[in-house]
């Protein structure tokens, strides 16, 4: 109970902190518009206008992932610069309780990107928001937030160890977009990518959202997304503990 | 098992390894702390004094679990700082000077709620403790404002640590707020909290600390009460000269004068303040002025040594 409370308060306050950054707000306004535009023109060019909504959902999910990845990497780097990384790592709780709210908050604010992409698609390009399973779509969105937040924790554990967290975070954007089938169907990718895609929570989150949009068995995908997310959480917790110790040995919690 | 000592450190050493460049990496090793032994009693206010780069912050970070020592051991209330971090962290607080260490886009109330939660303060106690704390730092009524521009030093009071590390807390703080801070620190120590304070300000260390360790070059050069340290400069006399444009050759010449033990120069804008310590029985003032002939001088003064002079003597001898 106490753990849940700590996670919840941490996530709410971190999201509040993120939402007050002029940079984050500007990015949140512009990026979904760009994503929606890309999705629309790609699919129009591909002569598949009936898949526009699917494309918009995929583009929105790309926004969630970008938020988790750059948000977690950026947040940890920023805290390192501000000196707060040392202060929060110094608290007597398991580092997961300190870092998970950080990545969960980026997933929550990233969820806004999904909604905004759909809205821009509706307002600017007239894509009707006609969901096959509206209720399941809500559940899939929540599963995506949870799954991506936990996946973010696994990545964040390495950001705690490495001083140049940004350098690692930024290039991971595109491979995950591609591998998870957020915009391009996994079936068109080379066969060797399939096993990688299968173990990424993002793949199943994207699939659940797509199935809720156009129809399909949403709940198994939600279940797999959450299960893989939990594996990331456990792995992230173990790594975080070990990386925290290594960071103390290598003196990388602070910049100076 | 809790110890009677707040802090016990034996043979603490810390080396930093840096690497620059990718193709032809250049590796450097810096020995920041080279074997520190110290014990601090419960409720003691202990000062760490030393020039920049002396190893003060590294020592504090090894004691508060942020850095793993390269060698040696340290215990806080009997708990090992490397292996029993959670036990140690439950008992300590850490404040560092400057403008960092708080979430400035959140209000004071949100910052305090967040850290109260991370320090495991029971929810039913949080409201009361936060209100007390806001009252203590004079922020009642302003708790909803964002932290940008606030004073600091409140977070660690939330969980009432047994051992509080203050790393140059008064840096960049105006004199009135610094006095307020000293009063708070003295109050904490009087209430039984062990405080380890690093500072550049001699007066602050003199006023507050029960004992002071002077660190230089990663080693403790002197350890004692302020009075004991001051006595290091006993038998000395200090000549202070305000001058303009003193060349290095003149300073070297001063160092070579018979009876001179220590010479330091402090730049104060266009003015340089020369401090020359000598054996008390040797009157060096005449010789000093002779060496400075032809240089524009201001006030010349001869006085008894202070703690600062003792500090300069200790660091200079290191």
Automatic annotation (TrEMBL), chain A:
Protein topology in the membrane: Multi-pass membrane protein
Domain ABC-2 type transporter transmembrane intervals: 18-212
Positions of transmembrane segments: 21-43, 55-76, 96-115, 135-162, 174-198, 218-240
Chief place of localization: membrane
Subcellular location: Membrane
InterPro entries noted in UniProt: ABC2_TM (IPR013525), Nod_factor_ABC_transporter (IPR051784)
Protein's recorded name: ABC-2 type transport system permease protein
Species: Actinoplanes campanulatus
Automatic annotation (TrEMBL), chain B:
Keyword line: Antibiotic resistance, ATP-binding, Nucleotide-binding, Transport
Domain of life: Bacteria
Entry's localization field: Cell membrane
Keyword tRNA processing: no
Membrane topology per record: Peripheral membrane protein
Biological processes, Gene Ontology terms: response to antibiotic
ABC transporter domain boundaries: 7-242
InterPro entries associated with the record: AAA+_ATPase, ABC_transporter-like_ATP-bd, ABC_transporter_ATP-binding, DrrA1/2-like_C, P-loop_NTPase
Any one GO molecular-function label of the UniProt entry: ATP binding
GO cellular component labels: plasma membrane
Gene3D superfamilies named among the record's database cross-references: P-loop containing nucleotide triphosphate hydrolases
Family matches, as PANTHER family: ABC TRANSPORTER ATP-BINDING PROTEIN, ABC TRANSPORTER, ATP-BINDING PROTEIN
UniProt protein name: ABC-2 type transport system ATP-binding protein
């Amino acid at each position: 109970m106490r753990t849940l409370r700590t996670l919840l308060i941490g996530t709410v306050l971190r999201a509040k902190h993120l939402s007050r950054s002029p940079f984050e707000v500007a990015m949140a306004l512009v990026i979904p518009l760009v994503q929606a535009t890309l999705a629309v023109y790609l699919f129009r060019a591909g002569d598949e206008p009936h898949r526009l909504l699917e494309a918009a959902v995929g583009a929105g999910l790309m926004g969630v992932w970008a938020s988790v990845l750059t948000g977690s990497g950026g947040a940890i780097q920023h805290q390192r610069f501000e000196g707060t990384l040392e202060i929060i790592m110094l608290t007597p709780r398991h580092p997961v309780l300190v870092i998970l709210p950080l990545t969960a908050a980026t997933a929550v604010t990233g969820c806004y990107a999904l909604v905004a992409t759909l809205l821009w698609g509706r307002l600017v390009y007239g894509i009707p928001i006609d969901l096959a399973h509206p209720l399941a779509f809500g559940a899939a969105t929540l599963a995506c937030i949870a799954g991506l937040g936990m996946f973010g924790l696994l990545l964040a554990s390495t950001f705690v160890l490495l001083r140049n967290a940004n350098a690692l975070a930024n290039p991971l954007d595109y491979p995950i977009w591609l591998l998870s089938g957020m915009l391009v169907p996994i079936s068109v990718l080379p066969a060797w990518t399939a096993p990688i895609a299968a173990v990424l929570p993002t793949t199943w989150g994207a699939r659940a959202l797509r199935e809720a949009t156009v129809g399909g068995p949403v709940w198994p995908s939600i279940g797999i997304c959450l299960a893989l997310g939990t594996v990331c959480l456990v792995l992230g917790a173990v790594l975080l503990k070990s990386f925290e110790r290594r960071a103390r040995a290598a003196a990388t919690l602070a910049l100076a | 098992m809790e110890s009677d000592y707040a802090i016990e450190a034996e043979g603490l050493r810390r080396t930093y390894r840096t690497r620059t460049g990718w193709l032809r990496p250049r590796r450097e090793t810096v020995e920041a702390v080279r074997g520190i032994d110290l014990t601090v009693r419960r409720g003691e206010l202990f000062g760490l004094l030393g020039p920049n780069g002396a190893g003060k912050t590294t020592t504090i970070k090894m004691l508060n679990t942020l850095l793993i020592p390269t060698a040696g051991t340290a215990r806080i209330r009997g708990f090992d700082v490397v292996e029993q971090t959670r036990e140690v962290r439950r008992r300590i607080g850490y404040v560092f000077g400057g403008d960092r260490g708080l979430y400035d886009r959140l209000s004071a109330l949100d910052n305090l709620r967040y850290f109260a939660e991370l320090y495991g303060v029971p929810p039913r106690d949080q409201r009361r403790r936060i209100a007390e704390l806001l009252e203590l730092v004079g922020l009642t009524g302003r708790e909803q404002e964002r932290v940008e521009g606030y004073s600091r030093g409140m977070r660690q009071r939330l969980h009432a640590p047994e051992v509080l590390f203050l790393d140059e807390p008064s840096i960049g703080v105006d004199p009135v707020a610094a006095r307020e801070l000293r009063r708070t620190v003295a109050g904490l120590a009087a209430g039984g909290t062990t405080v380890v304070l690093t500072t550049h300000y001699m007066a602050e260390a003199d006023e507050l600390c029960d004992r002071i360790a002077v660190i230089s070059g990663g080693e403790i050069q002197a350890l004692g009460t302020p009075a004991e340290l001051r006595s290091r400069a006993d038998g000395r006399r200090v000549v202070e000269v305000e001058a303009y444009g003193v060349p290095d050759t003149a300073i070297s010449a001063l160092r070579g004068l018979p009876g001179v033990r220590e010479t330091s120069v402090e730049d104060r804008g266009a003015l340089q303040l020369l401090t020359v310590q000598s054996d008390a029985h040797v009157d060096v003032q005449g010789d000093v002025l002779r060496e400075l002939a032809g240089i524009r001088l201001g006030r010349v003064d001869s006085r008894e040594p202070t703690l600062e002079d003792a500090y300069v003597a200790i660091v200079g001898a290191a």
